Amino acid sequence: xxRASMEYVKVVVRRLYDAQKLRxxxxxxxxxxxxxxxxxxxxxxxxxxxxxxxxxxxxxEYEKIIWREIKGMPIIDRWLIRIRGIxxxxxxxxxxxxxxIERFATVSKLWAYCGLHxxxxxxxxxxxxxxxxxxxxxxxxxxxIGQSFLKVGGPYRExxxxxxxxxxxxxxxxxxxxxxxxxxNREVAxxxxxxxxxxLKPPKLPEWTLGRIHNMATRRTVKxxxxxxxxxxxxxxxxxxxxxxxxERLGHESMIDPWKMIEVEATKVA
Length: 270
Known about the structure:
Helix content: 55-70%
Domain Transposase IS116/IS110/IS902 C-terminal: 80-153
InterPro entries: Transposase_20
Distance between the termini: 22 Å
Protein name: Transposase IS116/IS110/IS902 C-terminal domain-containing protein
Organism: marine sediment metagenome
GO molecular function: DNA binding; transposase activity
Order of helices and strands: HHHHHEEHHHH
């Protein structure tokens, strides 16, 4: 697929997400009106049912356009679209932004382009007034992929669960206290409700929280997925794969075969 076609895919996916965001915002607004008894639930459902169906249909039409553009690409048909949690919109954004896997001689370069590299020992973040040297859209897409894996389950969700539990076990074994955010009392940033000592006043900036562990496990899972995408795509294109970057960079004792992560048949949007 040429660059112009890829740019077209990106535009369509962005419009799809714009439509989705508008639908969700409208739905949440209506739920608040119903909850506050400003609008009766029966009246709302009767009045806006057709509008909701049309909004959903618009999203589906965009998805069909994306699928028509990307189907037939070897990386899409043979691997990417067959991964649970990756549909036309996420798959389309990935291939359209990466464009040519030959540009990334190592998986580390792909991670960096997706904003998943490390600067001064910390995850890369965009700084005010400075131009970032990675694709912000790919970084956002990577985050969405992580959320999708958690939602739908499957092999990548299992990787997340395993690493999350490993971090919890490791830190508790080191004598750390793992704090959990207090969702009921927003004035308290962290509260010792889980996995640790009770009735202990939380520090202002605790080192270990369930939120931090979640983010670390999600980030690691997405990096493994991207390493699989990099390996498979380059193999399909007949490009060298090189050394075991995932093992070197992420510390796996054994390599994970990306072809064994396939769970579903190639998806077609009707």
